[in-house]
Amino acid sequence: MKSPVRVVVTGAAGQIGYQLLFRIAAGNMLGDDQPVILHLLEIPPAMQAVQGVVMELEDCAFPLLQGIVATDDANVAFKDADYALLVGAMPRGPGMERSDLLKKNAEIFSVQGKAINNHANKDIKVLVVGNPANTNALIAQQNAPNINPAQFTAMVRLDHNRAIAQMADKLSVGTHELSNMTIWGNHSSTQYPDISQLKVNGEVVKDIDHNWYENDFIPTVQQRGAAIIKARGASSAASAASAAIDHMKSWALGTPDKDWVSMAIPSDGSYGIEPGVIFGYPVTCANGQYRIVQDIPISDFSQQRIDATNQELREERAAVEHLFS
Ligand code: NAD
Ligand code: LMR
């Protein structure tokens, strides 16, 4: 049996936290042979609810769950942490853009970035889910100067999965038959779901009606979060947790041959993106490291959309630069 790893989930009493914790403890994220110690971080008013979650986790008698730390102190939560899923933040309601949350949630990520810097394992893998996820990840990263900046990532995997589901439906194939989907940029309505490299069973997909692609598929994927808020009266939770599991699993355990996944990661300037912003890229993962897929041909149509989401991320960064340590 491997030694246990410590996994932090913030917002542990929230909607996503409630889905996520049980799947991590069941081995869905890091594998059936990886014991875990869960660290649950919440704010003081939610600590009673967290105790209920702890009782339920105990009641599952998960063989891989070797301990639980529940706390409202970030310095305790991130102590020796190997993985962190930063979920705890306010969700948007009807009529809001995710960027409307920037001021409300930014402070959370600067405090947690500092706690990660001071207490976590130096190789910690961080995934930011709380919105606006890309720029919150940048805030956390900028407050953690002693941690490799590449260890801070944000979630566009939900968008990636949504795009695959929409295309599978359009092409009347199973989701498992599709590969090489890409989400470029921000987890926002400027994101660009790019199907130019999409394959079905290894064959490039051709003959997609461009009008449908531009005026139906792209807006459907971009606006899916808002459609769910309208339908449920609350933002996506089970699908978000599932995508977070997928993101961390790919990063920790690797991606399949001949496929890639979309992760928002610090730009190294690839594809002309502003260096440093946390940008959704196609990546492959192996040995716990991700690598941007290079040399994808970019059409004028794609370039315009990549530029728009790049510009939005630069503007978001400018709005929070005062929070960088
Ligand atoms: P929720 O309101 O149900 O839960 C959030 C929890 O975070 C609450 O229990 C709250 O007490 C806690 N919290 C607040 N501040 C905290 C802090 N400083 N430390 C620890 N915990 C804190 O919300 P939710 O539905 O679980 O969504 C959480 C976030 O995830 C939202 O910002 C939402 O917009 C975002 N989200 C992102 C994606 C994505 O694809 N990136 C998808 C879905 C939701
Ligand atoms: C989503 O995409 O479902 C989440 O980011 C929630 C939201 O605000 O859209």
TrEMBL record:
Source species: Marinicella pacifica
Function of the protein: Catalyzes the reversible oxidation of malate to oxaloacetate.
Record: active site: H187 (proton acceptor)
Domain Lactate/malate dehydrogenase N-terminal: 5-148
Domain Lactate/malate dehydrogenase C-terminal, chain residue ranges per copy: 157-321
GO biological process, one term: tricarboxylic acid cycle
EC number(s) from the headed UniProt entry: 1.1.1.37
Keyword list, A-Z: NAD, Oxidoreductase, Tricarboxylic acid cycle
Binding-site residues for substrate, renumbered to this chain: R92, R98, N131, R162
Gene Ontology molecular-function annotations: L-malate dehydrogenase (NAD+) activity
Stored PANTHER family: MALATE DEHYDROGENASE (PTHR23382)
Catalytic activity: (S)-malate + NAD(+) = oxaloacetate + NADH + H(+)
NCBIfam families: MalateDH-SF1, PRK05442.1
Origin: domain of life: Bacteria
InterPro entries: L-lactate/malate_DH, Lactate/malate_DH_C, Lactate/malate_DH_N, Lactate_DH/Glyco_Ohase_4_C, Malate_DH_type2, NAD(P)-bd_dom_sf
Positions annotated to bind NAD(+): G11, A12, A13, G14, Q15, I16, G17, N105, Q112, V129, G130, N131
Family: Belongs to the LDH/MDH superfamily. MDH type 2 family.
Protein name in UniProt: Malate dehydrogenase
High-level lineage: Bacteria, Pseudomonadati, Pseudomonadota, Gammaproteobacteria, Lysobacterales
Alphabetized Pfam families for the sequence: Ldh_1_C (PF02866), Ldh_1_N (PF00056)
